[in-house]
Amino acid sequence: MNEQVGGTMKHKPSILFVRVFLYIMIGLSQLYPEKMYSQDNQNRFTDSTVVKSEGILSLRYTSDYYSMGRADSAKAPYLSFSAGYYHKSGFFLNSSVYYLISNEESRVDLYTVAGGYEYFSKKFATGISIKEFIFNKSSYVVTSELNTSLNAFAGYDFKIFTLFADASLGFSENTDVFLGLEINKTFRALHRKMRITPSFYANAGSREVFSEYYTNRSRQTGTVMGTGVNGHSQNPVALPVLKIEESNQFGILDYEAGLNVSYQVKNIRYFMLYTWTFPVNPSLIISDQDTYEEDLHNGFYWSAGIRLQI
């Protein structure tokens, strides 16, 4: 889900408030230094108060790329820039560019363009969107065969917790169906300028896009284009042809726990997100040489950034 920002601040934060915020951020970073989500588990009710048309610019660093608990063995840290326009009617349009900054490779790895409609009331939220993905031909992230996604969501604030459900169609060479369920709760601090939102998320879906990744993009199994190990360029390397058995089969893919911490100063929001992912139900990988089970590991990734309302 896309994070949106809202709310204003009448007075400048004191030095004490800023120090408290930084201590929390530094402490969390030291507890979990290895990897980072998400996906972006945001609370739309507390982070969105779009009562007028506005533009939003954001800059974000993400420590690694995960999708539903799956990730390539090579880390893919991104620095991304996004620009969007959100009309007070609920219609929006945004675009992002993702720059890969790994030790071995650096390049523009992904462009995205999205548009849709979102509605928010005091207790209820819903929306629909379409998003186009343009991956670099050398990209090795697990969804790099994805072309287009169509998403719909609905959420309700029960006071004790907020519940979201979403459904997506992912279009690559084939079509995937994904469903998600999120429970979160937002706590406010520092005169309601800081928001702390722990969340729990479950993902289910088919695996066509992951099967295409194993065939075409994986560093270990696919026919990889571009920069090779240690920065040396390489030609496509033909490896055993792999695919996921019954990749159209629907099932639970992972569970995720997240923590979103943000702090608003006038029209600027600073944010950090931490995500722990627990993949389940490994796929059976079939090749022309062997058959084996997908190697899954629990993961952690984080992101940090700044958003500006204009």
Can you give a write-up of this model?
With 310 residues, the protein is mainly beta. The protein is built from two helices and 18 strands. Strand 11 and strand 12 (233-234) form a beta hairpin. It is 8% helix and 49% strand. It has one domain (15-309): monomeric porin ompg (Porin).
Short description:
With about 300 residues, this protein is mainly β. It contains two helices and 18 strands.
What is the arithmetic mean of pLDDT? 82
- Classified in CATH, the superfamily is monomeric porin ompg
In total, the number of domains comes to 1
Q: Please estimate the helix content.
A: under 10%
Q: Outline, from the CA principal axes?
A: globular
Remind me, CATH topology?
Porin
- Overall radius of gyration: 20 Å
CATH structural architecture: Beta Barrel
Please write the string of helix (H) and strand (E) elements. Answer: HEEEEEEEEEEHEEEEEEEE
Q: Give the percentage of residues in beta strands.
A: over 45%
CATH class membership: Mainly Beta
Structural class by sheet pairing and helices: mainly beta
Strand order of the largest sheet: 1-2-3-4-5-6-7-8-10-14-15-18
Contiguous uncertain segments of 5+ residues? 1-49, 221-236
Number of helices in the DSSP assignment: 2
First-last Cα distance: 21 Å
What is the strand tally? Answer: 18
Largest sheet: 12 strands, antiparallel, barrel
